[in-house]
Amino acid sequence: MKIIVAIVSTVTLLFTGLFLFFMLNINSTQGAFNYPASNISETSKQAIAETLKAFQDGYESRDVSKIGDCIARTIDTTSIFILGTNPNEIFKGKNGAQALLFGDWSWWGSVRYDIGRLYADQITDSVAYVALPGNIRLDFGNMVFPLEVSGVMVQSGNGQWKFSKMQFLYGWNTNHIIFARIAAYGTLICLIALLALVGIMKWIMALKK
């Protein structure tokens, strides 16, 4: 029985170690790096980059008094729909955009977008799909995670491009998340088995007395 307990204890420690390894390496990827070449005119790409620069400036200053200015320069409030990094972060319209920016600038962290690696695909003369990588240093815990932003941008009559649809994604290595969850289940099962074995051993010892 003692040998079985020792084996289960070893397996428990192994699963625990695997869980810690995968959790600590969950953000080991450096973010997206293999975007294809953009399929858009250089003029439109530069105009889109200008909008993204204004968006970056807002996330850099994090001055909530300037949320209205940022939205006016970067977001089409008549059609905007935004998905955040969390499942329930769903924002629509001007009020939704204001709520997202207020929360991000107040509590989320320091975001840097890599505009130089922007991918843009022209869908029509006034509609484009865009994606760009970045990273965030969270206010809580000072942790840094890779980030990706994608969406649809529309061109207004004055030639300015604005976001119509947006999605924020953490660039986590999801394989590590899956393996960490498997290791957590393994740890839990082994702990239950270990406690049961210890209980049985104590019961057997009590009977011998």
Quickly describe the structure.
By secondary structure, the protein is an alpha+beta fold. It is built from 5 helices and 7 strands; from the N terminus they run αααββαβββββα. The protein has 2 domains: 2-24 and 176-208; 42-172, Nuclear Transport Factor 2, Chain: A, CATH 3.10.450.
Highest-level CATH class of the largest domain: Alpha Beta
Strand content: 15-25%
Write the element-wise H/E pattern from the N-terminal end onward.
HHHEEHEEEEEH
- Low-pLDDT runs of 5+ residues are none
On the 0-100 scale, what is the average pLDDT? 87
Summarize this structure as a short list of keywords or feature phrases.
209 residues; 7 strands; Nuclear Transport Factor 2, Chain: A; alpha+beta; 24% strand; 7-stranded mixed β-sheet
SSE topology:
Layout: H1 2-24, H2 42-61, H3 67-74, E1 81-83, E2 90-92, H4 93-108, E3 109-113, E4 119-124, E5 127-138, E6 144-155, E7 161-170, H5 174-208
Parallel strand pairs: 1-7
Antiparallel strand pairs: 1-2, 3-5, 4-5, 5-6, 6-7
Helix pairs in contact: 1-5, 2-3
Descriptive account of the structure:
The protein is α+β, with helices and mostly antiparallel strands and 209 residues long. It folds into 2 domains: 2-24 and 176-208; 42-172, Nuclear Transport Factor 2, Chain: A (Roll). It has 5 helices and 7 strands. A hairpin with a 5-residue loop joins strand 6 (144-155) and strand 7. The mean pLDDT is 87.
